[in-house]
Amino acid sequence: MNRKEQLRKISITEQFDLCIIGGGATGAGIALDASLRGLKVLLIDKYDFAGQTTSKSTKLIHGGVRYLEQAVKKLDWEQYKMVQKSLHERDTLIKNAPHLTRPLALLTPCYTWIEGIYLTIGLKLYEWIAGNHGIGASKWLSRKEALKTIPELKKENLTSAVLYYDGQLDDARYCLAILQKAETLGATILNYAEAIRFEKDNLGKLTELHFKDTLNGETFTVQSKVFINATGPFADHVRKMANPKLKPRMKVSRGAHIVLPASLMKNETAILVPKTDDGRVLFIIPWQDHLLVGTTDEEDKLSENPDLEQYEIPYLLSYVNRYLEKEVSPSEITSGFAGQRPLLGKAEKSSDTKSLVRDHEVEIDKNSQLVSIMGGKWTTYRLMAKDTIDQIYEHLWQQEPVTCTSDHQLLHGAEDYRFEDWEKLSAQYQVSPAIAQHLMKKYGVFAEKVLKLTDNQPELKALIHPNHPFIKAEIVYVIQEEMAMTSKDILDRRLGLALRDAKVAKDSEEMVESYLVQFSR
């Protein structure tokens, strides 16, 4: 994707069928679904793609064990349906981008036999709901088997454990892969484009959008048949911009994470803490040669740049030290981040964000005809997109929806992907197995395109830092091919180095800035 080319496409397009505001997972999913149905699509984002909620998740593709428990205890059909949909979508997400996903084994330590029986029954039900879309069988492990699976587990009072499977994804790059696929199908995709105001016809229906290029201040006007608000936690802002009379619908839940060295838990199995002292679910997850610990879940004030708060560090570390034998200190934290999730609910009814269902709703404003997709979660992004487009066909265009085909659409980098090809790349380009494997997992079949940049510039094979497998050719590639416009775009989302090691990322900023000057086009 080339940003100048995207701006050119905007300038020559008289009218789009859909203009999507928001370049996270939901907006990206809508852009792909609509493009597959033959619609003319524009997507804009105020900052970078996946810059907010989408890239600050716990990196899991899951049905929601907590929601299943609530569904059973409260006989809540809505909770049950959400788990069922999520488990079916989990399989689809993994199949559509195998280079960016993997099945993940999760172990829950048990400290009483009753707890072991309770969790085994619950996770067998979880597995049964998944049906043909299951990715691994759950089982009850003895104490010995649990310690063999995760030797670093705290042994005191441990009686057994339950093992089950969910999925893991590289969230920022998965979102980018959706957008890249949409763009190859004809969609126009633009980051750093802030929606400023709408124009309306005599009946109050939206007809045009003015947006500003936040990199240079230039303004543009686009016409579209339909405008879609896919801004996640910020949905109320766009709703008010379209119709000031609309009442707020969104609540925000805060999720904080810390990142630790992988040496603290040397295996590929995660730990699920099913219930913290204050009723949350927490994970300790092997993730990209590190350990990811999170998440918190509490009501928060909406912010474009939520930071990890100091009080959250001891909270998360306390659970690491409760479940691992070796004491972990704050000095061992390599990075941390916080994100905000969009929850659909009315603040006056409940102040407990843990109790709100993470399902979604498509709202079509009767006056402006703005379409807002609100709520939801990463795992169901594709269903959210499908529901949004279907509603537009049925309620705005009074037509039978064109069939959705996104459920079996391989994403950018997934076509003909074989992880084993890393061996060929390693031999052909004389890079280490660690580098070749890393590139396959980040770029899929386009890993070779990254390495081709080193043919005439062998210095680009050099590591950005000796402790990490990233090479300098990746910086050039994401600038030229993936619309990375700033050092944060590169270090936080395209590469993800900042989420693994904040200090190394900070030390690399000057070099990345020089590459941006040299290779931007």
From TrEMBL:
Cofactor dependency: FAD
PROSITE patterns linked: FAD_G3PDH_1, FAD_G3PDH_2
Reactions performed catalytically: a quinone + sn-glycerol 3-phosphate = dihydroxyacetone phosphate + a quinol
Annotated Alpha-glycerophosphate oxidase C-terminal domain residues: 404-512
Domain FAD dependent oxidoreductase: from-to ranges: 17-343
Listed InterPro entries: DAO_C, DAO_C_sf, FAD-dep_OxRdtase, FAD/NAD-bd_sf, G3P_DH_FAD-dep
Keywords, ordered alphabetically: FAD, Flavoprotein, Oxidoreductase
Pfam family, one: DAO_C
Domain of life, source organism: Bacteria
EC number in record: 1.1.5.3
Family membership noted in the UniProt record: Belongs to the FAD-dependent glycerol-3-phosphate dehydrogenase family.
Entry protein name: Glycerol-3-phosphate dehydrogenase
Organism listed in the record: Arcicella lustrica
Lineage, top ranks: Bacteria, Pseudomonadati, Bacteroidota, Cytophagia, Cytophagales
